[in-house]
From TrEMBL:
Alphabetically ordered keywords of this record: ATP-binding, Nucleotide-binding, Transport
UniProt name for this protein: Iron complex transport system ATP-binding protein
Superkingdom as given in the UniProt entry: Bacteria
Pfam family membership, one: ABC_tran
SMART domains per record: AAA
Origin organism lineage: Bacteria, Bacillati, Actinomycetota, Actinomycetes, Pseudonocardiales
GO molecular function: ATP binding; ATP hydrolysis activity
PROSITE patterns documented for this protein: ABC_TRANSPORTER_1 (PS00211), ABC_TRANSPORTER_2 (PS50893)
Organism the protein comes from: Lentzea xinjiangensis
Domain ABC transporter: 3-224
Amino acid sequence: MRAEIDQVTVRGIIEGITLHAENEVVGIVGPNGSGKSTTLRCVYRALKPDAGTVLIGGQSVHRRQDLARELSALTQESQVEFDFTVAEVVEMGRLPHRRDPARDRRVVAEALARVDVAHLAGRSFLSLSGGERQRVLIARAVAQEPEVLVLDEPTNHLDIRHQLDVLALARGLGVTVLTVLHDLNLAASYCDRLYVLDEGRVVAHGTPEEVLVPELVAKVFHVTAHVVRHPTTGVPQLLFDQEVTP
Ligand SMILES: Nc1ncnc2c1ncn2[C@@H]1O[C@H](COP(=O)(O)OP(=O)(O)OP(=O)(O)O)[C@@H](O)[C@H]1O
């Protein structure tokens, strides 16, 4: 399903952001405060843009009644306030569906196993570590079986194995994934295309190979980078010098 952001402006924060994703993994990268989360918030309707449109499957998100059946989001605000068990939190992902209890149970069990939290099913969510919580929230988003999955820094709190695992999971779903990532090398490894934001605007977009070049990295992130190839996958990866550029 196609997700389309067209000329979206949130006054003083983002200006005329245009991007799209369709059955691919699209990464949004950029420095702190460049407007990445604000852009995603317009997609999952936490924020109404001052101008521009956000379309999911060709329809405005602000006019859709049934958005939760098509879009799920792991956000910076995705927290659980009350003392639910892990299984209950992931079951919440089935709320938009709930027609076939046997299927719901199976989907929840698969989601728990896929992010390696099945052994925590009976535990209180609030008793979990940061990384365990993040994996449970990812399981909830996946259990929703969305056509469009929106992820704001999904690798937050995760150890390296679980970072790789979660991004492989997102890729393996075969749906439209729109994800904010800070780690440019993970972005290069798991995203089909990238959009680079700086000061609220898209300043570059294309394949990781096209986008992650030393000139762009220096201009936007103010660091010196060298591009090397991953020895087995051939994917471009960046090595950074220690001093920052002015
Ligand atoms: N509700 C708000 N009111 C005022 N300013 C805001 C609001 N939300 C975000 N901002 C500001 O807008 C800018 C962009 O914020 P946003 O969270 O979208 O950036 P980001 O690229 O996701 O940053 P980070 O990498 O630090 O998570 C920041 O300077 C932030 O302080």
